[in-house]
Amino acid sequence: MKKIDIAYIAGVMDSDGYFTIKKSTYNMRKFKDRKNPQYSEKCGIKQVQSQAVKFIYENFGGYYRIEKPSSENGKPLYAVQLMNKKAHTFIKIIYPYLRIKKSQAQILLKLRQSLDKGKTEKGISYHKDRWGNTTRFIRYRVSPEEIQYRETLIKEIKSLNDTRPWSYIPI
């Protein structure tokens, strides 16, 4: 891919893109088979014109969709979303050319470093399958310090993404 194309994509992401962290506690709540939430990088873009969105999708993959208009006279939105390692690869490539959202992208790069460190704590759990047989599983857990670090990254990226001139304090 040409440098001018990468710079173009970075400019598009600076103007209309988003960079955030997805935290999932679904398996903790629903199946109770996890002790820690799952964290993943998430970035994407939504625009009324399809050209830039399709260009990103064709070069980096991800999930492409067309969203219905939110108002009666609105236009459909073209969107592409990248998660996990696809998002990481995308961010690494466009990072040198980002201007406005470079801090958010840097936080996602830090998150990937944390995720790549691996799991440090080892535990054993037993689960019954659908026939009632008990199976032994080795489970690896992330240290509480690493979880706290990831939570700090979420707070940082939320504060950077919050564009309100005042902070909302619930009563």
* SSE-based structural type: alpha+beta
Strand content: 25-35%
**Poorly predicted residue ranges:** none
Query: N-to-C terminal Cα separation, in Å?
Result: 51 Å
Number of helices: 6
CATH top level assignment of the domain at 3-117: Alpha Beta
Structural notes for this entry:
Helix 5 (102-116) runs antiparallel to helix 6. This protein has a domain at 3-117: Endonuclease I-creI. The mean pLDDT is 90. A 4-stranded antiparallel β-sheet has the order 1-2-4-3. The protein has a two-stranded antiparallel sheet with strand order 5-6. With 171 residues, the protein is of the alpha+beta class. The chain has 6 helices and 6 strands.
Q: What's the gist of this structure?
A:
The protein is α+β, with helices and mostly antiparallel strands. It is built from 6 helices and 6 strands.
What's the helix and strand layout?
Elements: H1 3-16, E1 17-24, H2 26-30, E2 38-47, H3 51-60, E3 63-67, E4 77-83, H4 84-94, H5 102-116, E5 121-128, E6 134-141, H6 144-161
Antiparallel strand pairs: 1-2, 2-4, 3-4, 5-6
Helix pairs in contact: 4-5, 5-6
